[in-house]
């Protein structure tokens, strides 16, 4: 869906031919890196949030099932999410591989996905685990300030304005969003750790986890990601690689 045609010229000669999964805390640059990799290989960048919204807007059977649940502000059940993922990766644009951003979230989902990938002849996924010091992450997230006028984003530590508390473009007042306050950020990071630790352990044990240092620049992290993802050569029959 979010495939860039512009990236086609720089696309590697080899196909991705697999699922790549990104695991990383809020502020680790997960979404950015997932998109960069998907564009590089010309494969879809898949998020279950986008899939849900698409089903609802197209009023598919799954969308009709999900809509009232979402309207009540409740979490869409796993069974529905998994059905949606199965349908999505069966589409033609996924045949050369795809990148997941924010899925799977639990070991149960990961097991289901492993079976699904096996059945569809993709073999084992590559899992990119973005690792970053929590103290640095806290600084990145709590240092964010937004201009009340133009919405520009600054960071009091990494991208300060010339005049403290004022936007460089329009002199607007800089504010911290409620979500970026230290206590909120700390509890989000804690929740992430708690939820993700079993998933990290599962994929590490499967031998498919690649730890990537996410404290570096976007470009450097991107290079590490590319090195971690070693695509099969063209011509090798899919489904031949057994786990
Ligand atoms: Zn501004």
SSE map:
Blueprint: E1 19-23, H1 30-41, E2 45-46, H2 48-58, H3 61-71, H4 78-89, E3 98-101, H5 107-119, E4 126-131, H6 134-142, E5 144-147, E6 153-155, E7 174-175, H7 182-206, E8 209-213, H8 218-228
Parallel strand pairs: 1-3, 1-4, 2-3, 4-8
Antiparallel strand pairs: 5-6, 5-7
The protein binds zinc ion (ZN).
List its salient traits.
243 residues; alpha/beta; 3-stranded antiparallel beta sheet; 8 helices; 43% helix; 13% strand; globular; binds zinc ion
What is the compact description of this entry?
Helices cover 43% and strands 13% of the residues. The chain contains eight helices and eight strands.
Description:
There is one protein chain. By secondary structure, the chain is α/β, with parallel strands linked by helices. The longest helix is centred in the last third of the chain and has 25 residues, at about 180-205. The strands form two sheets. A five-stranded parallel sheet has the order 2-3-1-4-8, sandwiched between helices. The protein has a three-stranded antiparallel sheet with strand order 6-5-7. The radius of gyration is 20 Å and the shape is globular. The protein has eight helices and eight strands. Helix 1 crosses helix 8 (about 220-230), helix 2 (about 50-60) packs across helix 3 (about 60-70) and helix 6 (about 135-140) crosses helix 7 (about 180-205). Strand 5 (about 145) and strand 6 form a beta hairpin. About 30% of the residues are buried. It binds zinc ion. Zinc ion binds near residues 150 and 152.
């Amino acid at each position: 869906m979010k495939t860039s045609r512009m990236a086609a010229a720089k696309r590697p000669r080899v196909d991705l031919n697999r699922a790549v999964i990104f695991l990383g805390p809020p502020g680790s640059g997960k979404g950015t890196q997932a998109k960069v990799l998907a564009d590089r290989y010309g494969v879809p960048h898949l998020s279950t949030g986008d899939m849900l919204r698409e089903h609802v807007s197209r009023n598919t059977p799954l969308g009709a099932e999900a809509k009232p649940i979402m309207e009540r502000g409740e979490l869409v059940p796993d069974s529905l999410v998994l059905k949606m993922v199965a349908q999505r990766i069966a589409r033609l644009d996924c045949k050369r591989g795809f990148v997941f951003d924010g899925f799977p979230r639990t070991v149960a989902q990961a097991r289901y996905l492993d079976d699904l990938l096996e059945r569809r002849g993709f073999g084992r996924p590559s899992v990119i685990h973005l690792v970053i010091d929590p103290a640095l992450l806290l600084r990145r997230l709590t240092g964010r300030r937004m201009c009340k006028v133009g919405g520009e984003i600054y960071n009091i530590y990494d991208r300060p304005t010339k005049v403290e508390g004022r936007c460089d473009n329009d002199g607007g007042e800089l504010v911290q969003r409620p979500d970026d306050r230290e206590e909120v950020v700390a509890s989000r990071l804690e929740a992430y750790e708690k939820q993700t630790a079993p998933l990290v352990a599962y994929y590490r044990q499967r031998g498919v986890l690649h730890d990537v240092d996410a404290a570096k620049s976007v470009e450097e992290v991107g290079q590490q990601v590319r090195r971690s993802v070693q695509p099969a050569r063209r011509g090798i029959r899919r489904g031949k690689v057994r786990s």
